[in-house]
Amino acid sequence: MTDQGQVVQSLQSDTQETIRTDLRAWILSIGNELLTGRTPNGNFTWLAHRISEAGGRVVGGSVVPDDEDAIVHALGEASRFANLVVLTGGLGGTPDDRTRPALSRFTGRGLRFDEGAWQIVRRYARQLGLSEAEESLRVQALLPEGAEPLENPIGSAPGIWLKTPEAVFVALPGVPAEMRAIFQESVLPRLQREWRLMRVLQWTFRTAGFVEAHVQKCIPEEVVAEVPDSVEVGFYPNDILVDVVVRAPEHQADSGRALAGEIRKYLGHRVYAEEAGVALAAVVGEALRMRGYTLALAESCTGGYLAHCITAIPGSSDYFVGGVVAYHTEIKERWLDVPQRVIHREGVVSEAVARAMAENVARQFGADCALATTGIAGPSGGSTTTPVGTVCIAVVTPGQTQSTRVWLGTDRLEVIRRATIIALEWLRRQLEGLPDADLIQAWMNLPGEQKR
Predict the structure, then answer these.
(1) What residues make up the domain containing 269?
(2) What is the pLDDT of residues 234-271, one digit of tens each?
(3) Is 450 a domain residue?
(4) One domain, residues 354 and 432
(5) Radius of gyration (C-alpha) of the chain in whole angstroms
(6) Tens of pLDDT along 197-248?
């Protein structure tokens, strides 16, 4: 695509009407709290996803403090590359809210009191019993000359739509719920009319238990190389949760669908869901529910994180009966009946102990299935034979118990999270009768050891 955008033929018009797809967006995030790291910039992620999904292209973004000069400079940089600049933050009524004056100064359009914006502010003030005479409220009704207020259904500060010859500037509050509400209800429909955006189709394949490189190796390079440039394949890793996404404009729907089918075939049993945002624990829960099975947990190194993931899913009480966080060795012996002789002979981080934990918690809780974890999350406590990051996992399903010993790195939180994901994915495969050798073998290479 060129800087001027591309023109494609309409699928819905006998006259071959052209559709503009040249929306180039820049997201400008404003706030000192973003630069100190105290607040994650979730607004950028959300906006970038929505704009891309609608058919626009996000060409860049920046984060600046609550400083008028910094905002003006960033607006100049953004408008060099984009024809849509979306600002978030700095629209309140306190002295550090500098978005309005910065936008006014950059565009050379003086601030004026807008009656439509004032009606939005007044309505919210009345709901909260605030005095309409407060200066902090009246400031929020000041807009640059020629700008239009955007309805804020859940807050006081109206959004701003300002169209200039250079670009369209959209200013939104930094509060995530307010920003999303205004964008969805007021901004997105106008963008679709202004740029006549083409819908982008998307196919998502969620995988668990592998790093990005493992997932990429599953798909031959020639499969991706043969598709049109307008059809995109993306790998989106969140450590060992990797989404493979195929995106195609509507006029390339057949090519996108064909590519998605090929990728799905090569990923095979590694795909646990085909919809963005579906949690692995939810899929495991549904597999348990469909079979009428219940689940119990015996956790050591995961410290309750496994139970947290399970219970974060609505309706998990249908299948999850409970668990034990047996962190200390004595608790494993006393509450999970792990024989002391097994611990002394095999070590507390061993497959034998993990199996005993899983089998005994299933028996004690009367559960059909169970998961157990025991390991060394670090950063200390490891040894030559059992280095930091060693985790033993056991899975109980009706009629069988399986266990494995894996090495999951040296970062404490990473080890906890990886152990949880692998345990859930292993249980999913056991329940659905899917192969699991690739999942286990990917993590069996301990430091200084050969794969077993």
Answers:
(1) 200-273
(2) 999 999 999 999 999 888 999 999 999 999 999 999 99
(3) no
(4) yes
(5) 27
(6) 877 899 999 999 999 999 999 999 999 887 888 899 999 999 999 999 999 9
Last-in-domain residue among 195, 228, 260: 195
Examine the domain organization and report whether 69 and 161 are in the same domain. yes
Compute the mean pLDDT over every residue in the chain, rounded to the nearest whole number.
Answer: 91
343 and 427 belong to one structural domain: yes
Compute the CA torsion angle 77, 78, 81, 87 (nearest 10 deg).
180
Q: What is the domain count for the chain?
A: 3
CA–CA gap between residue 327 and residue 357 (Å, rounded): 12
Residues 356 and 389 in one domain: yes
Q: What is the domain-level CATH number for residue 215?
A: 3.30.70.2860
Residue recorded with tokens 């190194």: 301
Are 345 and 363 in contact, with CB atoms under 8 Å apart?
no
CATH number for the domain that contains residue 305: 3.90.950.20
Question: Does residue 9 contact residue 18 with C-beta atoms inside 8 Å?
Answer: yes
Q: In whole angstroms, how far apart are CA 216 and each of 201, 212, 244?
A: 22, 6, 9
In this predicted model, what pLDDT tens digit does every residue of 313-345 receive, in sequence order? 999 999 999 999 999 999 999 999 999 999 999
Same domain, 397 and 313: yes
Structural domain contains residue 222: yes
pLDDT band at 15 (very low <50, low <70, confident <90, very high): very low
Domain annotation covers residue 452: no
Query: Could you give the CA distance from residue 202 to residue 214 in angstroms, rounded to a whole number?
Result: 22
Does 216 fall in a domain? yes
Give the CATH number of the domain where residue 95 resides.
Answer: 3.40.980.10
Question: In the chain, what is the straight-line distance between the N-terminal and C-terminal CA atoms, in Å?
Answer: 49
Residue 249 confidence (pLDDT): 85
Instruction: Identify the burial level of 238 via C-beta atoms within 10 angstroms of its C-beta, where 0-12 means exposed, 13-18 middle and 19 or more buried.
Output: exposed
Q: Residue 403 pLDDT > 50, yes or no?
A: yes
